[in-house]
Amino acid sequence: MKERNLDPHGGRLFPWLSSWKLRAGLMMVYDFLAMVVCWLLALLIRFDFLYSQIPPEYLRAYRVAIVPSAVVTVVVFVVFQLYRSLWQYVSLEELVRCLEGSAAASLLHILVITLLFGRMPVSYYLAGTVFFTVAIVASRFFYRFVRYLRQKHPQKGHERHRILLIGAGEAGQMILKDLDKNPDMGSRVVAIIDDDSGKWGRLFGGVPVVGGRNEIPDAVKQYQADTIYLAIPSASGENKRAILDICSQTPCELKQLPGMYQLMSGQVSISAMKDVALEDLLGRDPIRPDMQDVFAFIHGKRVLVTGGGGSIGSELCRQIAAHDPEQLIIFDVYENNAYDIQQELKKEYPEMNLRVLIGSVRDSRRIYEVFDVYRPQVVYHAAAHKHVPLMEDSPCEAVKNNVLGTYKTAYAAMVHGCERFVLISTDKAVNPTNVMGASKRLCEMIIQCFDAKIKAGQADRLPQIFTHAGFESADKDGTGSVFADVKTEFVAVRFGNVLGSNGSVIPLFKKQIAAGGPVTVTDPNIIRYFMTIPEAVSLVMLAGTFANGGEIFVLDMGQPVKIDTLARNLIRQAGFVPGEDIEIVYTGLRPGEKLYEEKLMAEEGLQKTDNQLIHIGRPVAFDYDKFIVQLQALMDAAYDNEADIRSRLMDMVSTYHPADVARQAV
Predict the structure, then answer these.
(1) CB 3.0–4.6 Å: which of 217, 404, 417, 527 could bond 560 by disulfide?
(2) Cα–Cα distance between 384 and 361 in angstroms, integer?
(3) What is the pLDDT of residues 557-611, one digit of tens each?
(4) Selection from 180, 244, 225 nearest residue 206 by Cα
(5) Contact criterion met (CB below 8 Å) for 506 and 275
(6) Which CATH superfamily includes the segment(s) 292-469+481-503+529-559+601-652?
(7) What kind and span of H or E run contains 285?
């Protein structure tokens, strides 16, 4: 069988046909012929298109001068680089060069024919220049014009997206230009929204500006838009949120330009558009605290992060690493997460002194070993079981990990000279209705107890709680000298839900939407406070710098958000209609779950700090000595896996009222 004559150049038999040099050669031939034809046409027009009426001297002058003039024209165009442009992206610069090149070529022809053969009719000069210029410009812009028509009137079945553009400004103009350059995308802006009434009813890049933000729903229906592009990067968070709230009432997919950086750097394009981030719907501007105090506090210190592989812990590690610590110690029981953050930080900060250790805060010997070897000066205690329904089914594990793990870590910090211990707490600790919240409230009480005993000079009265028989006492020599100069400051930082954290409802909703639904919401009225992970961590670190010991810092989470609204916004962002394309199913509150979270107990009150986003809750007094006795009994009950562990929690946390007291699980 005879082989086909294929070559390796992309499967083309004659790859040179696609060469820009070949196209340039064809353009040279066109320009040569355009010179010949256009100037002959100018001569014919002068004599009413009657060739026989043209005087012989004019014909002779034309015949002798036109070929040299056409050759010179090609040379002139080479000088003006008219054969090197990408004409599918022709712009004003190319137009100017076309006009300049055509004018220069026409002038040379006029000079040659006039000097050698005498003056020709004035109409010949004028008409010839106009015809030749039009022919040159038209040839260069023809491809661009065809692309424009294809975009303006796409073939049926080839129009992928009909776009409603919000913002008739510089960013919007760049979006229109990018779409114009890429008609094969099949996307077209069909209408524009802008709050500037002076632009209403006018055309912006050939597209009508149909009104302000209140016209968005009607414009979507009238122009059958299926996608909304938000191109107002300078808008405030509150203003953007108001517009997005209106957009979320439509079935359109939402895209937005990330920010001013893309506009200033000229990177505005379709590819730069991103999905509307959920934090854009929180109803406030992003929190950007001044981190100078944090830098001064962290710089040059040895810092330990427990639970450093988790969503909060890993972000703590990232921000600590950026503040130049002497050493960063990451401690986590789950090696996969610990490995991921280790590799990330080693790549980002190769010179940093980084240690990643595996172990559990429940293990007294392991946590003491870490403190004894590395002597951290600052501890961020993020290790905890946080999933409410799981802790309802395993309450003893919540006590072992959250409560006793916090106590053991805090004790190790105290006897090893740690300067500051920062507990990561939660708004679920306020009037808790679940085991997880109650366990975190106990963690806060442990912090208050440690602070009170240290300030009273009674650090030695804090028992060394451990479960390993024969474990060596912290007071090795029995003199109590280890408690003589304890200066550790213990504080807690309380905040609500964080977007994208492990166990967050947002990833669950996205998975359910991707699977075609249904999206499950526990209750149509359930509300939560939300904050992004970087925001929460920045404020946690900043609050830690304000500490004097014993405080419970409360972060300003903004306005609460209805989970049902959140779910509907996510569905709309994905381009679906809630209740039609994606069903929403209400499953009822889960064990231990409540409709709303509180940031403070009523009796705590609120005290301001120098930062308006950080407040201090006044500590609720309790009997510290009684608490310590109860805590030891709670440890024994948890390790014995007692079924009535909830009743012990209720005795210790007066504000704990289980949502389902009858539910007993170990």
Answers:
(1) 527
(2) 9
(3) 666 778 888 888 788 777 787 888 889 999 887 766 667 666 555 555 667 777 7
(4) 180
(5) no
(6) NAD(P)-binding Rossmann-like Domain (3.40.50.720)
(7) none
